[in-house]
Structures are given as C-alpha cells and as structure tokens.
Amino acid sequence: MDGGNEVGEVKVSRLQVEEEDETPIEHRVSLQGSALCDALHFSVHDKENSPMMRAVLCSQVCKVYRFETEDQRRLLVREQMSETPLSFSLPKQLLSALIQEHASRVQQVKELSDLSPHWDSLRHDVVSYCNHLIGCYQETLTELENLSTSPCFKSSGRKSDRHLQFVPTNLHSQRMEVTAPGSSGVWYQVITFGAPADHHQAFKHGGLKRLLSKHQRQSSVSYSLEESYRARELLVSVAQLPPLIFGQAEELLSVSAERNPARLQEVLDGLMQETKLFIHALNDELVRSALTAFHSQCASVSGRHGSGLLCENASANQEEAREYDEEEWDRTWANVAKSLDCIMAMADRLQEREHLLRERSSPDPQESTADTKSQNAGSSSSSSSSWQEQLLPLVVTLRDCVREAVSKARAAMTFVVLQGALTATVAQGPERIVQRRHAVFSQALSAVVCGFMLKVYGGLEDPEFLQQLHSVGILAQFEALLSTYGEEEGMLEDMEELKDGSLIRVESVLFNIGINQHQSLAERFGDSSLQERVNQQSGERLRAYCHSLRDKLPHTAGVQSLSDLLSALDRSLEVKKRKNVEVLWIAGTMCHKVNGIRLTSCKSAKDRTAMSVTLEQCLILREQHTLSQKHFSMALDCMRRDGCRMENVQKNIGSRKFAFSSVQLLTFPKLYRPPDGTYG
C-alpha cells in the first residue's frame, strides 16, 4: 500500500479556477477558507444542514480538494471536521443517571429490615460506598453545569482535569464526501478522540484491566438488575399477601358459626384466591436458586459470625448452616397448597354433613313440633361448635405453612437485593476504580453515540441497514495507535472494558497497533502480549459478527466479500511482524463494508490519529474512487499539511506542528510519517 515516491503534477485547484496556473503545486493541492466552503454549500444534501445534524455536529472546519483519477477525471473531495455537543451533554446525562442509580440502591438496601449484625454491616458498607460516589458525581456534575459557556470540545491539554474526567478528549467527527463527475457524493466518516482513559488518576498502578484483577472481589454468586427488581417485587408480595390470607382464615372461623352455606362459600373463595396468588408468587426459580446460594454462603461464614440473614432467623444458625436440600423450597410452598386443600375438603365435608342432617331432621307433620324444635336447637349449637373445632387446627396449619414460606422467601429475596447491591458496588473494588470505570465508559459512550447517530441518520432511507440494526446490531470498531509501553499500556487496559452492548446491540471490537518509538522499545525489550491478546480477541468477535450478518442477512451489500477479508485479517494477526499496521487497514475496511462505526484514537487524538485518518482517507480514494497512484503521496501530504487535522493540532496546542521529532519518525511506518516542515 505504498504510495510511491514519484509524483507528477497534481491538477488540484480552487473550485472557481479550472485552468492551470503558475501557483506552486504545494499551494494548489489544498485550500481552506469560508468562501470555498460557501461555494460548496449548495452541493450538499439538505439533510446535512438539518436540525438533527446541527444537534450532533458544531464548529465545523471544511477543506475542499480536486484530485485526478487514473482515467483523468476530477474527484471533488470535501473534508469536514466537526466538534459535537455530545462531548459534554452525554457525560452530564450519564452522571445524572449514575447519581439516581446509586441513590435508588441506597433506598433499596435501607428498606431491608431486621437484618442480622453481619448482614447489617454489609448493608452499611453498600450505603457508605454509594453515598461516596453520589457525592463525587454530584460535585463533577455541578462543575460541568456551571461552565460559563456551552462547550463542545475538551483540548488535549486538559485531559487530566479532575472535573473533566468524564468528558472525552479532543472528540471530533472526521467526514469526507467524495463526488465524481456525474454522480452524487459518497460520505465516509471516522470518529476521532483521545484514548478513553482516566488521565486524572494516571497509570502508576496500571489501567482498569490490571486494577480490576487486583482488587475486584470474586463472588460465587451475583444478580442482575432485573433479578434484583424481581426480588423487590417478591418482597412486596410476601409482605402484602399473608395478612390477607390470615384475615380470610379468621373470617372463615367466624362464619363457621353461622348456618349460611352461601356466606361460607364466599369466604372460602376469597381464601383460595389470596392463597393461590401467594403460591404463584413463591413458585419462582429465583427464590429457589437464591435459597441454595444463601445456604451455601451461610455454611461458608458459619463459625466466623452469625450466618442468619434476618434477625428472626439468628437462632437458627445451625439449621441454616447444614447441607441444604434444593427440593426443600418446593416442599415449603407445596405445603401451603396442601393445607389449603385440606381446609377446602373439610369445608365440603362439613357442608355435606350439614345438608344430610337437615334432611334427616326435617319435621314430620305427624310429629310434635315442640320436640322437634328443641332437638334442632341442640343439634345446631353442637354443629356450629363442631365446625370451628374441626377447621381450627387446619387454619393453624395453613398459618404456620405460610409463615414458614414467608420467612424463607423473605430471606432469599433480601439476599438477592443485598448481594446484588454488593456485587454492583463494594465487590467492584475501591471507589476510585469504579469512578475510573465510569469515566472511561463515559468517554467511549460519547464517541460511540456520536458515530451511531450519524450512521443512523445517514441510513434512515436504507432498509437493509435498518434491518441490520434490528437483526445483528451495529459494529463499533475502535482503532488504537497506543504503544504497549509505560502509561500508554495503562490507557490500552482502560480501553479494554469497551466490549459489551445491549438493546440495539453494539458489537465492539478494538484493534491496537503501536506505531511510535515507545512501541519499538516494547517490542525489543518489553512485552506486547496485551496488544496481541486484544487483537486476537477482537478478531474472533469480528468474525462472529460477520458470520451472524451473513447468516441472517445474506443478501446485504458487501457481505459476500467478507470471507476473503476475514482470511486476510487472520493471516495478518498470525504474522509476527513489528508494527503490523495492515491489521488496522483490513479491520477498517471491514468496518466500512458492514456499515459500522469507525473510531480512531491515540493518546490525545492529535498527532498519530492525524496520520491514521489522513492515510485512511487517501486509501479510500485510491481503492474506491481510483485516485491516481502517482498522486497518492501528494494527496496524503496535502491533507496532512493543510487539511482539517492540522487545524485540529492548532486548536489543541496553538501551533501548526505535529509533535514528532525527526528521530522519532525514523521508527514510524513509512505511510504514517508527515511531510517535511510539519513537525518538530
């Protein structure tokens, strides 16, 4: 992919000048200025200036070029770099959500009553942990809200600012529109930003990956947010339903003294309804599995401190610590159902007996009515007493069974809520590690959302793309140019948390190839295993995504060519070659083919990122739009000398010089070196 050294005359000029002129070629290759952008304004589709786009992009810098193709046509290339309000608005939304989430967790564990001392101590740990994070995040949010202007940009010089910890560094949308004669423009885009990492806490002890491996507590059981929510629902049920059951049972005993079959049946129906709701709520796999986990943990802590979860169970520590029978819970709630069946069966027998008694004791017209009335009064009193006596032990059994089920279910669901809170807080390690994780996520989220919104808005009229989102989700391909030496290894460890997605699935892959002098040191004297592991894992994830896309949407454009690219990527990953940037080129090509989100970063998204983005743009022009091979290097130098990325450098450091030295550049791959006079 070398552009070659021989460069002929490049016919590139201002839009309003078509003929050759005597201006030196290096001045004619690239041009900037509002007049040029204004001239191009009307060639851009209306939706580029829509409210949606203005909400995502701001402070645009525009460069326009004309390049010659192999068949002597003129390509009109519009390069556009934009800031985004999402740099600050999304971190503020995330901070608000985190504050609300932790406040809700505090409220949830505070609502758990009657905990034994051991578990109450754990609850106190959760509350203290959450309150600390709430205080830190509220302070950060207040600082962001109090900024005097509405910022869209955090410069590389402020990447270590404490209160800008959640804000991505130097986040921009880099877009290129290519228009060939007689055709409409084609857009390509890359999101550029400083490596999502916590520069405020720095990297003395490594990045997230290393810190989590040191401090994260390994728990034998953990519960998701959905399971914790379900547990709280069940706690409400076991609090509300037993009083209703007990009330119906008391009423049953009361009406048993009445000789009113209709009223008795009404109370029985109510008792049956409430008890069945109770049984249905308890017949839940979450209760069963939580009881097993709870008793297992009770056995592990028995002897060190009280294993009882609830104070009322503290006297039963020895009982809880014994080997737990997993079928015990099924028997517990089944006993409730059986005791209800016994009551219903007894009520039926009593009513049937009463019915037969009434038939036998019907007064005969030939008999004395006085004697009959006397006998009936005596039998009625005896019958009422008999009903209460026979129903009472069954009602007591029902109460006992319900109480036992409530006790076990309440302990199990309290365990789920508390264990879920512990897993999400204290078990994650010290608060600073959780803050680091949230800050890294915030930076990456802002970049991905920016790219996603641009992708979706550009594909609203593309049914294949919308079907792809629905069926397999969208690929987010992170390209990193970090070395595996010193603090940049810590940054790469921070980035390695960026792999999960849900709802509209975001399949994240990260490919890193260090290209600077520090990577040379790492390859010769250090360790680049982190880079190898990250690239290998991402290659597997990318392969799985492509296979899913091929299986579910086999007719999508570009899918059939993915097999060859996957094979090429596998070969590149297997080759033991220093600074094998071909891995990045192939992965980037695949991302474009599957309509993915391309993201590129280095330490500050300023110098190495500029080399990568401009190279990618020129490769696209050559491979997709037949940019003349003899003009490739000139176009590359043109974009680096006078293009949008040089404007980015000046915006960040106030100088139009890339932060490279001539000695450092000797270690760079050839195509990642800027033209003379643009560095120092």
Briefly, what is this?
This protein has 680 residues and is α/β, with parallel strands linked by helices. It is 57% helix and 8% strand. Strands 1-2-3-4-5-8-6-7 form an eight-stranded mixed sheet, sandwiched between helices.
Key phrases:
680 residues; alpha/beta; Four Helix Bundle (Hemerythrin (Met), subunit A); eight-stranded mixed β-sheet; 23 helices; disordered N terminus; Inositol polyphosphate-4-phosphatase, type II; INPP4; hydrolase; phosphatidylinositol-3,4-bisphosphate 4-phosphatase activity; lipid metabolism
What can you see in these coordinates?
The chain has 23 helices and eight strands. It has 680 residues and is α/β, with parallel strands linked by helices. Among the domains are: 161-206 and 439-655, no CATH class; 218-297 and 330-354 and 387-413, Up-down Bundle (Four Helix Bundle (Hemerythrin (Met), subunit A)), CATH 1.20.120. Strands 1-2-3-4-5-8-6-7 form an eight-stranded mixed β-sheet, sandwiched between helices. The chain starts with 24 loop residues before the first helix and ends in a 15-residue tail after the last helix. The model is unreliable at 1-45, 313-322 and 367-382 (pLDDT under 50).
Instruction: State the helicity in percent bands.
Output: 55-70%
Largest sheet: 8 strands, mixed
The overall average pLDDT, rounded, is 80
Structural class: alpha/beta
Evaluate the radius of gyration.
Answer: 36 Å
First-to-last CA distance = 26 Å
Q: Which residues form runs of ≥5 with pLDDT under 50?
A: 1-45, 313-322, 367-382
Q: Quote the beta fraction.
A: 5-15%
Strand order of the largest sheet: 1-2-3-4-5-8-6-7
Broad shape = elongated
Number of H- or I-type helical stretches: 23
Tally the beta strands.
Answer: 8
